């Protein structure tokens, strides 16, 4: 059974709403990744940490009616959201299971494709997830990851409030064993775990005014407000002041917002 929740951003209502938006926001990048993976009709695929949707619909379309897609999610409430999604879209070749990405309990070597998106950056000990992904892949199967790396995220003109919020969020992440720069390490973890034929594709975006991800740093910071304050990374007054100043800056159409780096990595399990 899944262990107590470790997800960095928690599962409050705001985070669940953000996770519902995320699949549409990231779908173009995920489609481009899937285009590289030579998915065949009839394949078995799993989306680790699928959230309320993940790429379940994209995989369902690619494997076809004779294929099988499994979504794995550790939050019971999010599992229910994902099951509602597959029922609403009549994805008959998809099922969603409640389980831990580090110890899935699923049959070894049973999937042609094992995929995870923005999982490693949200849990401690990400190498354990990578190890589990690889044992789930059949010999000759593909393991693919779409991960974040916070080394590139910025706004311009620069703003002290942006820096202070980012510093507090990075400190909070470190306190919880999270590596916000795991994207750059994923290819090494894949190689160390025995994958071959490894490919790396960097992805970065500009978030213009009106883009739903323009305020994502604010969204994350608000999601973990209580923990930030409890861990004394900011006072209540400083939290309110910095967040308000940051939101005003992002409301200015003249402010450039560049996303964190995303790193797509895929490789093959030796036969």
Word description of this protein:
- Residues 1-5 have low confidence and may be disordered.
- The protein has 271 residues and is of the alpha/beta class.
- The chain is globular, with a radius of gyration of 19 Å.
- The two termini are 30 Å apart.
- Helices cover 40% and strands 21% of the residues.
- The chain has a domain at 13-151 and 177-205 and 261-268: Vaccinia Virus protein VP39 (Rossmann fold).
- The protein has a seven-stranded mixed beta sheet, sandwiched between helices.
- It has nine helices and nine strands.
Short description:
With 271 residues, this protein is of the alpha/beta class. The protein has helices spanning 13-35, 56-63, 76-88, 126-136, 160-175, 186-192, 216-223, 225-230, 236-251; strands spanning 44-48, 68-73, 94-98, 111-117, 137-149, 154-156, 196-203, 256-258, 261-268.
What string gives the helices and strands in order?
A: HEHEHEEHEEHHEHHHEE
DSSP helical segment count: 9
Distance N to C terminus: 30 Å
CATH class of the domain at 13-151 and 177-205 and 261-268: Alpha Beta
Q: Report the helical percentage.
A: 25-40%
Largest sheet: 7 strands, mixed
Alpha carbon gyration radius: 19 Å
CATH architectural designation of the domain at 13-151 and 177-205 and 261-268 = 3-Layer(aba) Sandwich
